[in-house]
Amino acid sequence: MLKLTGVAKRFGARTVLSGVSLGVVAGEFVAVIGESGIGKSTLLNVIAGLEPADEGSVVFQGREFSSLDDDALTRLRRRHFGFVFQAFHILPHLSVRQNVGLPLLLRGVDAEEIREKSVRILGSVGLRERAESMPRELSGGELQRVAIARALVGEPELLLADEPTGNLDPDNARQVLSLLARLVREKGAAGVLATHSAVAAGVCDRCYRLSGEGLALIDR
Protein backbone atom coordinates (compact mmCIF):
# COMPACT_ATOMS: atom_id res chain seq x y z
CA MET A 1 0.00 0.00 0.00
CA LEU A 2 2.86 2.40 0.87
CA LYS A 3 6.39 2.14 -0.49
CA LEU A 4 9.34 4.48 0.04
CA THR A 5 12.56 3.87 -1.88
CA GLY A 6 15.81 5.72 -1.23
CA VAL A 7 14.07 8.83 0.10
CA ALA A 8 16.24 11.84 1.00
CA LYS A 9 15.20 15.24 2.29
CA ARG A 10 17.38 18.32 2.71
CA PHE A 11 16.76 21.78 4.09
CA GLY A 12 19.46 23.98 2.65
CA ALA A 13 22.83 22.40 3.44
CA ARG A 14 21.34 20.18 6.15
CA THR A 15 20.40 16.62 5.25
CA VAL A 16 17.51 15.43 7.42
CA LEU A 17 16.67 12.14 5.73
CA SER A 18 18.92 9.94 3.64
CA GLY A 19 18.38 6.52 2.05
CA VAL A 20 15.01 5.87 3.68
CA SER A 21 13.18 2.82 2.32
CA LEU A 22 10.00 1.34 3.78
CA GLY A 23 7.04 -0.77 2.74
CA VAL A 24 3.74 -1.07 4.62
CA VAL A 25 0.79 -3.29 3.69
CA ALA A 26 -2.88 -3.01 4.61
CA GLY A 27 -3.63 -3.91 8.23
CA GLU A 28 -0.01 -3.39 9.29
CA PHE A 29 1.13 -0.90 11.94
CA VAL A 30 4.83 -0.03 11.89
CA ALA A 31 6.84 2.20 14.21
CA VAL A 32 9.71 4.55 13.43
CA ILE A 33 11.69 5.41 16.55
CA GLY A 34 14.54 7.81 17.11
CA GLU A 35 15.68 10.70 19.23
CA SER A 36 14.07 14.13 19.04
CA GLY A 37 15.32 16.06 16.01
CA ILE A 38 16.39 13.00 14.03
CA GLY A 39 13.75 13.61 11.35
CA LYS A 40 10.71 11.50 12.34
CA SER A 41 8.21 14.31 11.78
CA THR A 42 9.89 15.23 8.51
CA LEU A 43 9.55 11.62 7.39
CA LEU A 44 5.80 11.66 8.13
CA ASN A 45 5.48 14.95 6.24
CA VAL A 46 7.20 13.40 3.22
CA ILE A 47 4.95 10.33 3.44
CA ALA A 48 1.93 12.65 3.56
CA GLY A 49 3.11 14.66 0.58
CA LEU A 50 3.41 17.82 2.68
CA GLU A 51 7.15 17.97 1.95
CA PRO A 52 8.57 16.77 -1.38
CA ALA A 53 11.37 14.23 -1.32
CA ASP A 54 14.63 15.53 -2.80
CA GLU A 55 15.66 12.03 -3.85
CA GLY A 56 13.95 8.67 -4.14
CA SER A 57 10.26 7.90 -4.50
CA VAL A 58 7.10 7.77 -2.39
CA VAL A 59 4.36 5.55 -3.83
CA PHE A 60 0.89 5.13 -2.33
CA GLN A 61 -1.42 2.56 -3.92
CA GLY A 62 0.57 2.72 -7.12
CA ARG A 63 0.63 6.53 -7.33
CA GLU A 64 4.05 8.15 -7.19
CA PHE A 65 3.94 11.51 -5.44
CA SER A 66 6.40 13.17 -7.82
CA SER A 67 3.84 12.76 -10.62
CA LEU A 68 1.08 14.58 -8.68
CA ASP A 69 0.58 18.34 -8.41
CA ASP A 70 -0.37 20.12 -5.17
CA ASP A 71 -4.13 19.89 -5.82
CA ALA A 72 -3.92 16.17 -6.51
CA LEU A 73 -1.90 15.60 -3.34
CA THR A 74 -4.46 17.60 -1.31
CA ARG A 75 -7.30 15.46 -2.68
CA LEU A 76 -5.30 12.32 -1.93
CA ARG A 77 -4.76 13.38 1.70
CA ARG A 78 -8.40 14.31 2.23
CA ARG A 79 -9.72 11.10 0.72
CA HIS A 80 -7.21 8.49 1.85
CA PHE A 81 -5.09 9.73 4.80
CA GLY A 82 -5.71 10.14 8.52
CA PHE A 83 -3.47 12.07 10.93
CA VAL A 84 -2.99 11.89 14.70
CA PHE A 85 -0.76 14.53 16.29
CA GLN A 86 0.82 14.94 19.71
CA ALA A 87 -0.85 18.33 20.17
CA PHE A 88 -4.35 16.95 19.39
CA HIS A 89 -5.38 20.01 17.27
CA ILE A 90 -8.93 19.83 18.60
CA LEU A 91 -10.93 23.02 17.88
CA PRO A 92 -12.23 24.39 21.20
CA HIS A 93 -15.36 26.06 19.81
CA LEU A 94 -16.72 22.87 18.22
CA SER A 95 -18.31 19.93 20.00
CA VAL A 96 -16.56 16.56 20.12
CA ARG A 97 -18.84 15.25 17.36
CA GLN A 98 -18.21 18.30 15.18
CA ASN A 99 -14.44 17.98 15.61
CA VAL A 100 -14.57 14.33 14.58
CA GLY A 101 -16.69 15.13 11.52
CA LEU A 102 -14.38 17.81 10.11
CA PRO A 103 -12.58 15.54 7.59
CA LEU A 104 -15.92 14.46 6.16
CA LEU A 105 -17.13 18.06 6.02
CA LEU A 106 -14.07 18.95 3.94
CA ARG A 107 -15.00 16.17 1.53
CA GLY A 108 -18.52 17.58 1.11
CA VAL A 109 -20.25 14.63 2.77
CA ASP A 110 -23.97 15.04 3.64
CA ALA A 111 -24.57 16.43 7.15
CA GLU A 112 -26.66 13.48 8.32
CA GLU A 113 -24.03 11.01 7.15
CA ILE A 114 -21.35 13.04 8.95
CA ARG A 115 -23.37 12.89 12.17
CA GLU A 116 -23.98 9.13 11.89
CA LYS A 117 -20.37 8.25 11.09
CA SER A 118 -18.98 10.58 13.77
CA VAL A 119 -21.14 9.10 16.51
CA ARG A 120 -20.33 5.57 15.38
CA ILE A 121 -16.55 6.08 15.41
CA LEU A 122 -16.80 7.81 18.79
CA GLY A 123 -18.45 4.65 20.04
CA SER A 124 -15.49 2.62 18.84
CA VAL A 125 -13.15 4.73 21.01
CA GLY A 126 -15.48 4.64 24.01
CA LEU A 127 -16.74 8.23 23.75
CA ARG A 128 -20.23 7.94 22.27
CA GLU A 129 -21.75 9.54 25.38
CA ARG A 130 -19.40 12.54 25.02
CA ALA A 131 -20.40 13.34 21.42
CA GLU A 132 -22.06 16.65 22.31
CA SER A 133 -19.52 17.65 24.96
CA MET A 134 -17.13 20.54 24.41
CA PRO A 135 -13.37 19.84 24.36
CA ARG A 136 -12.80 21.75 27.63
CA GLU A 137 -14.93 19.13 29.41
CA LEU A 138 -12.65 16.23 28.43
CA SER A 139 -9.43 14.89 29.93
CA GLY A 140 -6.17 14.66 28.00
CA GLY A 141 -6.67 10.97 27.34
CA GLU A 142 -10.20 11.58 26.09
CA LEU A 143 -9.03 14.37 23.80
CA GLN A 144 -6.46 12.07 22.26
CA ARG A 145 -9.17 9.49 21.64
CA VAL A 146 -11.17 12.24 19.92
CA ALA A 147 -8.14 12.90 17.72
CA ILE A 148 -7.95 9.19 16.87
CA ALA A 149 -11.66 9.10 16.04
CA ARG A 150 -11.24 12.13 13.77
CA ALA A 151 -8.32 10.47 12.00
CA LEU A 152 -10.33 7.28 11.41
CA VAL A 153 -13.81 8.65 10.66
CA GLY A 154 -13.11 8.80 6.93
CA GLU A 155 -11.88 5.17 6.92
CA PRO A 156 -8.40 6.15 5.68
CA GLU A 157 -6.14 3.69 3.95
CA LEU A 158 -3.09 5.34 5.50
CA LEU A 159 -2.87 6.49 9.11
CA LEU A 160 0.07 8.64 10.27
CA ALA A 161 0.64 9.21 14.00
CA ASP A 162 3.30 11.65 15.20
CA GLU A 163 4.18 11.17 18.89
CA PRO A 164 0.47 10.68 19.64
CA THR A 165 0.98 9.95 23.35
CA GLY A 166 3.67 12.51 24.20
CA ASN A 167 1.25 14.55 26.35
CA LEU A 168 -0.31 11.59 28.16
CA ASP A 169 0.45 9.79 31.39
CA PRO A 170 1.70 6.17 31.06
CA ASP A 171 -1.69 4.52 31.67
CA ASN A 172 -3.52 6.70 29.14
CA ALA A 173 -0.63 6.30 26.71
CA ARG A 174 -0.88 2.51 26.80
CA GLN A 175 -4.63 2.62 26.30
CA VAL A 176 -4.42 5.05 23.38
CA LEU A 177 -1.65 3.08 21.62
CA SER A 178 -3.47 -0.22 22.02
CA LEU A 179 -6.64 1.37 20.67
CA LEU A 180 -4.80 2.90 17.74
CA ALA A 181 -3.14 -0.39 16.81
CA ARG A 182 -6.41 -2.31 17.11
CA LEU A 183 -8.35 0.11 14.94
CA VAL A 184 -5.63 0.19 12.26
CA ARG A 185 -5.80 -3.59 12.00
CA GLU A 186 -9.59 -3.79 12.13
CA LYS A 187 -10.01 -1.11 9.45
CA GLY A 188 -7.31 -2.62 7.22
CA ALA A 189 -5.33 0.61 7.10
CA ALA A 190 -1.58 0.97 6.76
CA GLY A 191 -0.29 2.71 9.88
CA VAL A 192 2.98 4.51 10.60
CA LEU A 193 3.79 5.64 14.14
CA ALA A 194 6.66 8.08 14.78
CA THR A 195 7.85 7.99 18.40
CA HIS A 196 10.92 8.33 20.58
CA SER A 197 9.62 5.58 22.88
CA ALA A 198 10.53 1.92 22.40
CA VAL A 199 7.66 1.08 24.78
CA ALA A 200 5.17 2.88 22.53
CA ALA A 201 6.58 1.07 19.51
CA GLY A 202 5.91 -2.24 21.26
CA VAL A 203 2.28 -2.26 20.07
CA CYS A 204 3.39 -2.25 16.42
CA ASP A 205 3.99 -5.15 14.04
CA ARG A 206 7.48 -3.96 13.09
CA CYS A 207 9.82 -1.34 14.48
CA TYR A 208 12.52 0.64 12.70
CA ARG A 209 15.17 2.98 14.02
CA LEU A 210 15.73 6.16 12.03
CA SER A 211 19.27 7.45 11.66
CA GLY A 212 21.32 9.43 9.19
CA GLU A 213 21.77 6.25 7.15
CA GLY A 214 18.05 5.51 6.82
CA LEU A 215 15.80 2.99 8.55
CA ALA A 216 17.09 -0.15 10.27
CA LEU A 217 14.73 -2.93 11.34
CA ILE A 218 14.92 -3.64 15.08
CA ASP A 219 14.81 -7.30 16.12
CA ARG A 220 12.40 -7.93 18.97
Quick rundown:
The protein has helices at residues 40-47, 70-80, 96-107, 111-124, 140-152, 170-187, 198-201, and strands spanning 2-11, 14-24, 29-33, 55-60, 63-64, 81-85, 158-162, 190-195, 206-211, 214-217. It is an alpha/beta fold.
Mean pLDDT: 91
Main sheet overview: 6 strands, mixed
The CATH topology name reads: Rossmann fold
Task: Assign the CATH class.
Answer: Alpha Beta
State the end-to-end distance. 24 Å
Tally of structural domains: 1
Cα radius of gyration in angstroms? 17 Å
Number of helices: 7
From N to C, what is the helix and strand string? EEEHEEHEHHHEHEHEE
Specify the CATH homologous superfamily.
Answer: P-loop containing nucleotide triphosphate hydrolases
CATH architecture: 3-Layer(aba) Sandwich
Strand order within the widest beta sheet: 6-7-8-3-9-10
Strand content: 25-35%
Description:
The protein is an alpha/beta fold and 220 residues long. It has a single domain, classed as P-loop containing nucleotide triphosphate hydrolases (Rossmann fold, 3-Layer(aba) Sandwich), CATH 3.40.50. 36% of the residues lie in helices and 27% in strands. It contains seven helices and ten strands. The chain has a six-stranded mixed β-sheet. Strands 2-1-4-5 form a four-stranded antiparallel β-sheet, with helices on one face. A hairpin with a 2-residue loop joins strand 9 and strand 10. Helix 3 packs parallel to helix 5 and helix 5 runs parallel beside helix 6. The longest helix has 18 residues, at 170-187. 38% of the residues are buried.
